Amino acid sequence: MPFQADYQDGQRPEAGSLVSYGPSPRVVWRDGGHVSRIVAGGKPVDLPVQESTNFELVMDRKTAKALGLTIPPSILASADEVIE
């Protein structure tokens, strides 16, 4: 599927999707600490809520070109990563 707004895995544009927008992989890795606490016997109700505050936008210009799309310069400028 060439167009995919992916909210969990910023690596998808490298595989050919057009755009990915979601939490930074570093933040997702950090949030995995909740799982280890629960597995160790912690109660989910006692764990603090952690919201992602750092999101990344990744655009793939190769896919855009293959689809005949032009990504506006303002969108490219706001992207965290542009795959050429």
What's the SSE blueprint?
Blueprint lengths: L4 E2 L12 E5 L1 H7 L1 H7 L15 E6 H6 L6 H6 L2 E3 L1
Parallel strand pairs: 1-2, 3-4
Antiparallel strand pairs: 2-3
Main sheet: strands, sense, barrel: 4 strands, mixed
Rough outline: elongated
Distance between the ends:
19 Å
How many strands in all? 4
Rg over CA atoms, rounded to whole Å, is 17 Å
Give the number of helices: 4
Strand content is 15-25%
Q: Would you tell me the structural class of the helices and strands?
A: alpha/beta
Mean pLDDT: 77
The parts where pLDDT drops under 50 for at least 5 residues are: 1-7
Oligomeric nature of the chains:
single chain
Going across the biggest sheet, name each strand in turn: 1-2-3-4
Q: Residue share in helices?
A: 25-40%
- How many discrete domains? 1
H/E series, N to C? Answer: EEHHEHHE
Which structural traits does this protein have?
4 strands; 4 helices; disordered N terminus; 4-stranded mixed beta sheet; alpha/beta; 84 residues
Written description of the protein model:
This protein has helices spanning 25-31, 33-39, 61-66, 73-78, and strands spanning 5-6, 19-23, 55-60, 81-83. The chain is of the alpha/beta class. The protein has one domain. The protein has a four-stranded mixed beta sheet. The relative contact order is 0.22. Mean pLDDT is 77; it is low at 1-7.
